[in-house]
Amino acid sequence: MNRVLFNAQDFVTSDRVRLCDYRADHIRRILRAAPGDCLKVGLINDRCGSGEVLEINQSSVTLRVTLDQAPPPKRPVTLLLALPRPKMARRIVHAATELGVKKIILLNSYRVEKSFWQSPLVDDTHLFSAMVEGLAQCGDTILPTLQRARLFKPFVEDELPTLLSQRTGLVAHPYASSAFTKPSGETVLAIGPEGGFIPYEVEKLLEAGMQGFTLGPRILKVETAVPAILGQFC
Amino acid sequence: MNRVLFNAQDFVTSDRVRLCDYRADHIRRILRAAPGDCLKVGLINDRCGSGEVLEINQSSVTLRVTLDQAPPPKRPVTLLLALPRPKMARRIVHAATELGVKKIILLNSYRVEKSFWQSPLVDDTHLFSAMVEGLAQCGDTILPTLQRARLFKPFVEDELPTLLSQRTGLVAHPYASSAFTKPSGETVLAIGPEGGFIPYEVEKLLEAGMQGFTLGPRILKVETAVPAILGQFC
């Protein structure tokens, strides 16, 4: 936790925040903060700043906060991600948040098992908690927006072309002939499930205006491919 | 498992391999292979090729193998990695192997807890199994070499300069002023522990001939930073 994050409801006065949960525990036990210490803080979906520790006790930590800094800039990327196996979804969403994607769209695909969509591990509560952890790790405050596209064809035919009207669309698949080159502006980056998008899906994504690219002869796990590609959008 | 890997001792004749363990299980249950099918195979630390399924039964799978292909080229990178928390080490070594690093040197650092070195999760057995899984995922056969540098100062003073005599050395730390730019040749890439190398360590690495670089204002977890940086060595 490189930045302590809070919500509007954590304020007890206009500039004081009281934390009573895992964040208070982290400040006490990991940061070993004492009254007078200054911590990096941030208001979720708002500004960053610093928080002076006013009081620490067994049940809470009170900070006087000054929110005077902009969060770090986002990478200009919308991640269009075939819904991963639920136990991997948290890790991938965490990494994508750390790396600063603006938006994550979870997409259905032939190789996404139907049961994945029902898993509590991919509900809003779990994925938002992964995002908040990712923000606290990297020092950001702005949550990526999260969308679910549970029907592949209607999304790709009706919504994706609009999304691509002002963005470059790239789809990673091992048999494309072009290597990855970083586009200059906003990008929609599509990453398939383990085993990849099926040929019909790749065709539909290309028809919608995306371009295929390959990462080379190595077939990467989704959780490796996501940071390996996002890292190139510095 | 995108390539079924085996060792010299799995051969029953000069071109036949018999598998009886998790690989046979994978071929039966996940690949659902039948006699006559052709699988991607490879001999560890040797060539890649194809394997025709000759026989499948409950206890084993027999393949006739032809090893006629070179493995994919490695990335020109030696990863000098502060020993990660043991439960993360496997995942990071797996990802680095998938991404094709040539060598991994596990390095001590002030912020590496002493107990990490004693964990069975970072012994050769565990890390080689992570590497073999990584190879099977990405379709490679050549294991990265693995070295342990349990004493920071002697390694950095006595061994690192030799390593750097024919390689560019880069150390990731958040407060460096230069952004990452991919060197043209062989590279030693140093990545610190969670919390980073301490200033004394950064200084010693720079004295040994490494150059600092920053990944920007975001502080990444080690398991995110490793693929995010390695991805740029395409």
Automatic annotation (TrEMBL), chains A, B:
GO terms for biological process: rRNA base methylation. Residues 74-231 form the Ribosomal RNA small subunit methyltransferase E methyltransferase domain. Gene3D superfamilies: 3.40.1280.10. GO terms for cellular component: cytoplasm. Signal peptide: none annotated. It catalyses: uridine(1498) in 16S rRNA + S-adenosyl-L-methionine = N(3)-methyluridine(1498) in 16S rRNA + S-adenosyl-L-homocysteine + H(+). SUPFAM superfamilies: alpha/beta knot (SSF75217). Its EC number is 2.1.1.193. Its main location: cytoplasm. Keywords: Cytoplasm, Methyltransferase, rRNA processing, S-adenosyl-L-methionine, Transferase. GO terms for molecular function: rRNA (uridine-N3-)-methyltransferase activity. It is found in: Cytoplasm. NCBIfam families: PRK11713.5-4, RsmE family RNA methyltransferase. Specifically methylates the N3 position of the uracil ring of uridine 1498 (m3U1498) in 16S rRNA. Acts on the fully assembled 30S ribosomal subunit. Belongs to the RNA methyltransferase RsmE family. This is Ribosomal RNA small subunit methyltransferase E.
